[in-house]
Amino acid sequence: MKYTEFKKFLFALQTVIVVLLTGFALPCIAEKEAAIFSGGVVDTDGNPVAGLPVFIAPAEIEGEWIDTLFFPDEYSEMRRADTDADGQFSITNIPQGSVYFGILPYNIDKRLPNDFEEIVDNWVSRDWRKITQADIDAFVAKGFGMRHSDFEPDVEILSLRVQGTTFYSRTDFDPMVFGVEPGADIKNAQITVQSRMRIRARVVFTNGTPLTNAHVRFRYSADNVDGRGHRQSGGNIRTDTAGYFVYYLDEKDDTARYTFSIEYQELSAEAAPVELEPGARLDGLTFTFDSEPIPPKAASQKAETDEPDPPSTPDASPKSISHEPWIVNPTNGHAYKRVSCESREDAVAQAAKEKAYLVAINDAKEQAWLTAVFGQECHWIGLSNVEEAWQWNNGEPVIYENWLPDDFFSESIDAIEREHAIMTFTDGKWYAVGPKSILLRMTAMAILEKSDVLDNPSAAERQ
Predict the structure, then answer these.
(1) Angle 205-270-145 (CA atoms, 0-180°, nearest 5)?
(2) Residue 462: CB partners within 8 Å, gap ≥ 6?
(3) Which of 172, 194, 216 is the last residue of a domain?
């Protein structure tokens, strides 16, 4: 069955994703009464899917908001199993409370360090109020180097049937949440999956040497063949030990002509345009850099007592409270810095300590510069909805906008609930978020800005 037909069927049923299964749902289960969940995974033709890593993990429900695991940090909270040759699995020691069923990449065990769970457990058990930028640098320098995107599975769940009830995903982002009784032994669950639309490509240098174990910037643009749509996106991806990477497109409806490109350090490469139908899986794509091999930049090895890296313009950039340097935009003379933050409020507090503010973006050139310097990841920016009008927090007028549609991430959030804005991984475009937005748990950084740095360096030095 094609996905579009399957999707029409789902919407016809008007099923709701967040359901606690009546008859075996309780708010809490003790460790000694842990449950078992077993069944099989099949594709849309009913064939068993073998060797697939599956898991059950806790899900916190607050109204319409579902808080699921964020990888790699919370990996150890899941309960895992792999499907056998017949697609069967059995997951034991199910955690307490509401849970959801998920899938990991086929090669996840090859990607993880041998002591991965110990590394993560030690990291997340620390007192986060005492974590410094130097601690984060040291953690990354251990060679851990994984990102949330490294845990993307190659297949997606279409439906989950448990004890006579079938659940369907409302959107591409919603998990299927259910509950179990203490000590329950749930058998014969059936999960239907399908392969995700994706490309698999290799990155090499001009002499044929692959770029291995490196993060590169991937971009694509797509024009529908019927001429009725255009889109573009991208993100950070990592090559494997042979220089290959996979990127998921997840287009469900429209055949389009795609153009792909990548960037690595100062290098870039573009592939010839290709036409892809919804659900297509393209292999054999190669990006070739016109350069001799360049190794990945080494991670910082700074200790807590080390001095921060010097800013790009030492005489003009303000002194840094955190270890990430200020970077001056030569076009407007403003200095910018990226900081890690637990929330938007935390980002605002850090900006105040730096005598700065969350970034205000005033034109397309400034937007392009920020994206080039800080990458296409989620960052808090200084835009707030005040009395149904968007305003920059530093008082500047809004003379430039770069919005994604409100429904871009398939969220049902009223406009009045969208209080702030995030610069997203979709070419740096902005997205309005509310307290229940899916992007809140994906946004752990903010961009700070200071103005008049080059015009008044002595004032910057005094701060």
Answers:
(1) 60
(2) none
(3) 194
d(CA 388, CA 6): 39
Tens place of pLDDT for every residue, the chain, 463 residues?
333 333 333 333 322 223 333 233 333 333 447 889 999 999 999 999 999 999 998 887 665 566 777 676 677 778 999 999 999 999 998 876 788 899 999 888 877 776 666 766 676 666 666 667 676 666 655 545 566 667 889 999 999 988 788 888 766 666 778 777 788 888 999 999 999 999 999 999 999 999 998 888 899 999 999 988 888 888 878 888 899 999 988 777 789 999 999 999 889 999 999 999 988 999 999 999 999 998 766 544 333 333 333 333 333 333 334 456 788 887 888 999 999 898 899 999 999 988 899 999 999 999 988 988 888 789 999 999 888 889 999 988 999 999 988 777 766 666 667 899 999 988 889 999 988 787 887 888 999 999 866 444 433 333 4
Q: Are residues 35 and 111 in the same domain?
A: yes
End-to-end CA gap in the chain: 64
Q: Return contacts of 128-133, CB within 8 angstroms, 24+ apart.
A: 128/342, 132/304, 132/323, 133/322, 133/323, 133/324, 133/340
Domain span at residue 72? 3-194
Cα gap 283→349, rounded to integer Å: 47
Q: Give CA–CA dist 429/422, Å, rounded.
A: 8
State the Cα angle at 47 between 44 and 52, rounded to 5°.
Answer: 90
Helix, strand, coil percentages for the chain (3-state, nearest 5): 15, 35, 50
Q: Are residues 64 and 106 in the same domain?
A: yes
Which of 117, 216, 108 is closest to 152 using CA atoms? 108
Q: Are residues 157 and 49 in the same domain?
A: yes
Neighbours of 148 (CB within 10 A): 15
Residue 394 and residue 360 in contact, taking contact as beta carbons nearer than 8 Å: yes
Q: How buried is residue 93: exposed, middle or buried, by Cβ count under 10 Å (0-12/13-18/19+)?
A: exposed
Extract the tokens encoding 334: 């403003």
End-of-domain residue from the set 194, 226, 241 = 194
Residue 95 preceded by cis peptide, ω within 30 = no
Contact predicate 422/430, CB 8 Å: yes
Amino acid at 346: D
